[in-house]
């Protein structure tokens, strides 16, 4: 697999995770609010990995 394909996959995972996380974060249920926050933080790991791959190039 090429680096560009891996970066694209990592970006897609990040975008899906961030979208789901924001939806849950904005919900009125306190339990889902916390879950949304954790999903956003977990998604950021994929974005950091993608950014590191871009910098290493």
Can you walk through the features of this model?
This protein has 57 residues and is an all-alpha fold. It has helices spanning 3-25, 30-56. Helix 1 runs antiparallel to helix 2. The model has no long low-confidence stretch (mean pLDDT 93).
Short description:
The chain is 88% helix and 0% strand. It is mainly α and 57 residues long.
Topology pattern, helix = H, strand = E: HH
Q: Please report the number of helical segments.
A: 2
Report mean pLDDT, rounded to a whole number.
93
Classify the secondary structure makeup into a structural class.
mainly alpha
Low-pLDDT parts are: none
Which term fits the overall shape?
elongated
Radius of gyration using CA atoms only: 13 Å
Query: What distance separates the N and C termini?
Result: 15 Å
Quantity of strands, as a count = 0
Estimate the strand proportion.
under 5%
Q: What percent of the residues sit in helical stretches (DSSP H or I)?
A: over 70%
């Amino acid at each position: 697999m090429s680096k560009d394909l891996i970066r694209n996959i990592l970006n897609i995972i990040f975008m899906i995770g961030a979208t789901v996380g924001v939806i849950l974060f904005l919900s009125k249920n306190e339990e889902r609010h916390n879950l949304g926050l954790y999903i956003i933080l977990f998604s950021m790991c994929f974005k950091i990995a993608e950014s590191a791959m871009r910098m290493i190039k």
